[in-house]
Design brief:
Order of helices and strands: EEEEHEHEHEH
Radius of gyration: 15 Å
Strand content: 25-35%
CATH topology: Transcription Regulator spoIIAA
Helix content: 25-40%
CATH superfamily: STAS domain
Largest sheet: 7 strands, mixed
CATH architecture: 2-Layer Sandwich
Distance between the termini: 46 Å
Structural class: alpha/beta
Shape: globular
Number of strands: 7
Length: 162
């Protein structure tokens, strides 16, 4: 018997709109996570609410869906709307950042509240993950990284203004 990955487990009251290359939403009464894919190869994950033991599976599901898309070159995780991030949620982000980097991608966080920043600092993620104060700064950095990656790999880069 195989075990179902935690990221596919839903609690009563959770809502799921299928995640695809065109985006999607997973939500519970305490956390809403939306994904969007940009033509530059950047996926944006926006979380609003609280990431704790009862909701971390929702964030994991979206991160898993983004990582599974081989056309994604960079991930922007926008936590500006997150009021609480558990250490388990911070560890999830740190592991995802490691996998994305190992695959040659870029992982960027948009920070919000002090409690989110503190949870990341507690596990040492403040030195391992690139942080940005605003979504526009993170998107600009993702686009710059995408253009650099294309130049290094000899591929035409996106001509987008973020």
């Amino acid at each position: 018997m195989t075990e179902t990955p935690k990221s596919n487990v839903f609690a009563p009251g959770d809502l799921a709109v299928p995640l695809s290359r065109y985006g999607g939403v997973v939500a519970s009464p305490w956390l809403r996570v939306r994904s969007d894919w940009l033509p530059s190869g950047t996926a944006v994950c926006t979380a609003n609410g609280e990431v704790d033991a009862g909701t971390v599976h929702l964030l994991a599901r979206v991160l898993d869906a983004i990582e599974a898309d081989k056309q994604v070159r960079s991930m922007v995780i926008d936590l500006a709307g997150v009021g609480f991030l558990s250490v388990g949620g911070a560890e999830l982000l740190l592991r995802a950042a490691g996998r994305v980097a190992a695959a040659g991608g870029e992982f960027l966080l948009v920070l919000g509240t002090r409690s989110v920043r503190r949870a990341l600092e507690l596990i040492g993620a403040d030195t391992a993950i690139k942080w940005y104060e605003s979504r526009s700064d993170a998107l600009e950095a993702a686009l710059a990284w995408s253009k650099y990656s294309d130049m290094v790999n000899g591929e035409p880069g996106p001509e987008l203004v973020v």
